[in-house]
Amino acid sequence: MKIRLFVLMIAAAMGIGLAGTAAAETLEIKGSTTVLPIAQKAAEAFMKIYPDVSISVSGGGSGNGIKAIIDGTTDIANSSRFIKEKEVALAVEKGVYPVPFGVAYDCITPVVHPSNPVCDLTLDQLKGIYEGKITNWKDLGGPDKSIVVISRDTSSGTYEVWEEIVMKKALVYPGALLQASNGAVAQAVAKNKYAIGYVGLSYVNADLKAVKVNGEVASLENAVSFPISRVLYMFTKGWPTGTTLKFINFILHPQKGQKLVAETGYIPLY
Description:
Layout: H1 2-23, E1 25-31, H2 36-49, E2 53-60, H3 62-71, E3 76-79, H4 85-93, E4 98-112, E5 120-121, H5 123-131, E6 148-152, H6 157-165, E7 177-179, H7 182-190, E8 195-200, E9 209-210, E10 212-213, E11 229-237, H8 242-252, H9 257-263
Parallel strand pairs: 1-2, 1-3, 5-10, 6-7, 6-8
Antiparallel strand pairs: 3-11, 4-8, 4-9, 4-11
Helix pairs in contact: 8-9
């Protein structure tokens, strides 16, 4: 009898342990490094409200995030650009219907070292720099030094928006130094007096100088009118439910997630 009671107690204890594990919920968020600061800040706040939820947030680029939502390896895909037609076709082929949620506005901001006197460039000048046709800062009112061009890699949504608005589909010249994230671009420019790069607005800091574009400064006030601006997205696999829906509602709430968007340096929807 004692042995049987002991076995029953062990079974009950295991059952309780398993029930506790099952009750814990997880949420996976992957993709754009531009949207990453928003997702991280929102995840921290969300887990304080819902302590039984564990959220994992990682970067990797917009393309990788959308691929993950199509493959079913993430619950939410961060993207700094809209989904492409070929991605939609692949998703539908796999029986997946990605749903986009705009979560913020952003300006893609050209940046140089603070010591660089150049403070305003046109879209045509930026295109010339990134095509490799303008190679010396003296041609732009700067020092007689070669321009070190820093760009994002092709899996980046930031790169694709830059390619569309600035490059007009022209190729970035082969001598450009490619970086995998906004943070990497910011660090590279901060360490090189003759470099130029481009980052999301929240990555501009005291170690960088934001360059005007066509006379306009990237700011919270002119996010929509700035020449290189965009919407930032979170995609879900079909219409969200459960914890995923709670998180999306949280990030879109004017007094909750949207306040956090502003705190990260991006432009809230409201």
